[in-house]
Amino acid sequence: MRFMIYDLRFMICRLVPGMKWCVLRALPVVVALGLILSCGCRRQKDRPTVALVMKSLANEFFKTMEEGAKAHHAQHQDLYDLKVVGIKNETDVIQQVEYVEQMIAQGVDALVIAPADSKALVPVCKRAMDAGIIVVNIDNKFDEAVLQDKGVKIPFVGPDNRKGARLAGEHLAAKLKAGDKVAVIEGAPNAFNGIQRKLGFEDAMLAGSISIISSQTGYWETDKAQPIASALVNEHPDLKAILCANDSMALGAVAALRDAGKLGSIHVVGFDNIAAVQRLLKEGRILCTVDQHADKLALFGIEYALEMLKTKAQPTDKETPVDLITAETP
Length: 330
Known about the structure:
By secondary structure, the chain is α/β, with parallel strands linked by helices.
């Protein structure tokens, strides 16, 4: 260290001819003081930083998730620092990958992610783990085969989407009779939770001997689901219900039925229990939805990430609550 400082003095004298040697004799003190201050800063900032990377903040579900995370952090600011980012559109996978890379570069301690794609986000999350970052998966489960291929274990903290969709499907089936026709508007085909919800709807319809005459993706979005629902109503005048893999698409289905003058004659099922559907539930425009508690889902992941940072425990999945919501739900 002493020789390094001497060399630094010599270099400065060569670069700045007017600089006096006596001035540079103080350099060790300046360097030492800088080290002390920087160490002090690190000691003061001894809380871990948790990054929450979400899907589309245009979707009310993820806005609610963000608000829940920030409320939790406000109550626990002494325990951790929080960074929150979310992509603009549900399908903007590249942007979400870039957000994770930013969090790696910023040196966060833990990453809690609701991936837009169950497969495409695994490699960048592995890079985060290789950099020493704890990764927790929420909302949309990573693809198990891809995790195995990459040789990583990332815990999933979230609901059983198939079970939740089956609850909604069973509630609908009780209103129908065998042979009735229904349609499904799916989530994004590259999303595990969308696939599971479709399977849950199918489980309930099969059990009730109800016919699914169409199943198409609305990519989670209202404006994509609405024309699909409009076409379904026109092509199948005897359609009895439309099961939507999230509430945003259910809103699109309701808009299509309103335009067609068929509100109330065709049931609509949703998933997520966002605020925008709660009035429609009471009015009978939507038959039911499923609450996976968006306001708590992120904090479940954050709390587990903090636990893993503290205990260094091996990652395990944790199932969170899922509940059927109808007009009769208090």
